[in-house]
Amino acid sequence: MNSHRKLITLDEFTIQETRQFPQATGELSALLRDIGLACKIINKQVLKAGLADILGKHGATNVQGEEQMKLDVYANEMLISVLRGSADCAGIASEENDEHVCFAEDFSVNSKYVVLFDPLDGSSNIDVNAPIGTIFSIYRRVSPLGQPCTTEDFLQPGNKLMAAGYVIYGSSTMMVYATKIGVNGFTLEPSIGEFCLSHPNMKCPEKGKIYSINQGNTCKYSEGTKAFLDYCMENNKEQGRPFSHRYIGSMVADMHRTLIKGGIFMYPADKSNANGKLRLQYECNPMSFLIEAAGGVASNGSMRILDIVPTELHQRCPIYIGSKNMVEKALSYADSPATVA
Ligand code: P6P
Q1: How far apart are the CA of 121 and the centre of ligand 1, in A?
Q2: Ligand 1 atom 5: the closest Cα is on which residue?
Q3: Whose CA is nearest to atom 4 of ligand 1?
Q4: I need a labelling partner for 256 at 20 to 30 A (CA). Which of 34, 201, 295, 298 fits?
Q5: How many A from CA of 272 to the centre of ligand 1?
Q6: 126 burial level (CB within 10 Å; 0-12, 13-18, 19+)
Q7: Atom of ligand 1 nearest to the CA of 265
Q8: What number does the ligand 1 atom closest to the CA of 66 have?
């Protein structure tokens, strides 16, 4: 690799993007940099999770009823702390918090944006050193500036997103985010502690040959989902060979592969979970905004995920997301709601 090639840092890139829009104030770019800072701090702890006394159950349980790993709590606290100090965030909502949090500082009530996040998605993979990640969504608030943010700020549909993305803590640490302009990926360069542009203008391949689903739940899936899985496993002339099945059990990791290599990631409704498992506001919507910005498709089985109007902060949503040809094929098998398991 040409070591003399100028590295473009996240800060430089976001500032250059801002310059493309004379009317832009730079607040959204600054917020993206703040999220990057929080995730660099989280990354430092993730890298030594096996060493520090940070493994093991924190003991508390979150609103999902899941035991909180200490790293979950740490990641949540870091994001809240950095965003509270940001001049560009009026408040947050998190998978780890029952309710949204308004920042009361004078400069916060005048901030234009709110941030929702899953601070450490896939945390059950921490102990087995599989990739985990932070997922974030940024909305322009709908409540009046100068006053605390409100519930409505956090219940906006995904088609109102201003930016969304994730940081994957894997073989390398990458930040991938989308704005309406497109999707760009930044790899953390540890020697300078900066996210550097490594994947400009990312596109999800229109055709894919990888399907990603927890096949262990097959007995609980609808007939339509089972029929699509049979299609994926058939050696038929349409695709030339059976597709490959890949499932890491960490949404950020499965979605990062889907974005780069193409394919479909699915967490459908099933007999036990009428709305699937994944959360609309801080898992499905940010990933749907990003994949659509990269040319992919995201549906809940009957409609575009970004058009769903949320009614509850932690509501779940079935998801079929990825390469256009695979998602459309999966939806062609989708059942009418009446027949969903
Ligand atoms: P299952 C991790 O717990 C998570 O929220 C997502 O990151 C992941 O895609 C999904 O749940 C895995 O769920 O039921 O297959 O273990």
Answers
A1: 8
A2: 122
A3: 122
A4: 34
A5: 15
A6: buried
A7: 9
A8: 3
Q: How far is CA 108 from CA 81, 83, 111, 205, in A?
A: 13, 9, 5, 40
Beta-strand (E) ranges in the chain?
Answer: 57-61, 67-69, 89-94, 101-102, 113-121, 132-140, 161-169, 173-179, 182-189, 194-199, 210-212, 244-245, 264-267, 297-299, 319-322
Q: Shortest CA distance to 285 belongs to which of 177, 99, 122, 137?
A: 137
CA of 32 to the centre of ligand 1 (A): 26
* Interval between CA 57 and ligand 1 midpoint (Å): 18
CA gap 154, 140 in Å, rounded: 10
The angle formed by the CA atoms of residues 38, 119 and 80, to the nearest 5 degrees, is 55
pLDDT digits (tens, 9 = 90+) for 65-96: 666 558 889 999 999 999 999 989 999 999 99
State in Å: Cα 72 to ligand 1 middle: 15
Question: How buried is 84 (Cβ within 10 angstroms: 0-12 exposed, 13-18 middle, 19+ buried)?
Answer: middle
Judged on CB neighbours under 10 Å (0-12, 13-18, 19+), 146 is: exposed
Question: Which atom of ligand 1 has the smallest separation from the CA of 254?
Answer: 9
| Alpha helices by DSSP H, 145-211 | 151-154
Which tokens in the block code for residue 237? 């002339």
Cβ burial of 326 (10 Å; 0-12, 13-18, 19+) is buried
> pLDDT tens for residues 102-161?
998 888 999 999 999 999 999 888 888 899 999 999 999 999 999 999 999 999 999 999
Ligand 1 first shell, C-beta below 6 A:
121-122, 124, 214, 249-251, 254, 277
